[in-house]
Design a protein that fits this description.
The protein has five helices and three strands; from the N terminus they run H-H-H-H-H-E-E-E. The protein is mainly α and about 160 residues long. The chain has a three-stranded antiparallel sheet with strand order 1-2-3, with no helix packed on it. Helix 3 runs parallel beside helix 5.
Length: about 160
């Protein structure tokens, strides 16, 4: 029962947008930046990984556009504040490699969260219709389809004469 509530709360509910998404995005950038600012003795590469859970949270709770903004902001903050010296971006080949690999990982996280959200919504919609039959009307013809099967033409609809 609790798992269903979690699914309905995070994955089925519409993703956050507008002011809520902006505030959550700023928090998702500020918290890991604060964590990294407290401890400067972290090994190289730890700065990017600190942002990963926050990008994942953003991907689950926000639309892909907002989550992508958090991901790009994370890379910019990690590179300019914690890699190299002098608040520069892409200083060394290692910085460029780290930024590119983080960007690819973030894109995979955001894409996977989007696909899972779509799959859960589709499954819950199918669960609400016990027969699984989907009826549709195209160009005056009635069709029936089932998940995983081809559509079946039911016939042409005649105009109703009242």
């Amino acid at each position: 029962m609790h798992r269903l509530a979690l699914l309905n709360g995070l994955l089925v509910a519409p993703p956050l947008a507008g002011r809520q998404a902006v505030l959550l995005g700023l928090g998702a950038l500020a918290v890991p930046t604060l964590i990294l600012s407290i401890d400067h003795s972290l090994p190289a590469g730890a700065c990017c990984t600190t942002y990963f859970p926050f990008v994942m949270m953003s991907a689950i709770m926000m639309s892909p556009g907002y989550a992508s903004t958090v991901a790009i902001g994370s890379i910019g903050l990690a590179d300019s504040l914690f890699m190299g010296t002098g608040f520069k971006i892409f200083e060394t080949p290692m910085d460029r490699f780290g930024d590119l690999s983080s960007l690819i990982s973030f894109a995979l996280i955001i894409g996977l969260a989007y696909l899972v959200r779509q799959a859960v919504v589709r499954l819950l919609r199918m669960r609400d219709d016990p027969s699984g039959v989907i009826f549709s009307l195209e160009r005056g013809e009635a069709w029936a389809s089932w998940p995983g099967a081809a559509s079946v033409r039911l016939g042409r609809l005649a105009a109703l004469d009242l």
